[in-house]
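Reviewer 2 asked us to include a model.

Predict the structure of this chain.
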Amino acid sequence: MEWYKSHIGYDHALSSIGAKRIDLNGCEVGTVTESEALAARQGTADKGSAIAMRNLATSPVRILNEMHAEGRISDCAIKKLDAPPMSPTPRSRTAATVVPEFAPLYETLAAANAAVVGINDSALRIEVAKASLDVVIKKFQQVRSGLEESKQ
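Predicted model (structure tokens):
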């Protein structure tokens, strides 16, 4: 039971308010409350981020690069790929200027993006994106209220 409850699919199933709860015998025993759904959405986001980090840590490309850097794999053991030709006018990559009033909102949006980036399952990605947008909207409202208060 603990393994099932620790699985991301369990949180995903509980992320809808009013969803039916089923016991081990398949009998309906209740419905998901708003607080349970919010907690499940947060659990889905946390577990999705952990899965993304684990996938990054076990990436074959990263491991191969580390082995090559440590000298455990020789240059001739790695097939070298030609780099794509550079465009005549490379695009400049400048960081966006963020005004102080928008900095908290910008940071929250960046964190929401980071939570969704590594999720490949489309249904799970949508649920995490929706939960993340709820956080962004709340932060937006806080920033807007702060601007209204500073105006007075």
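Residues 122-151 form the longest helix (30 residues). Helices lie at 2-6, 8-13, 34-57, 60-69, 103-117, 122-151. We have added this to the supplementary material.
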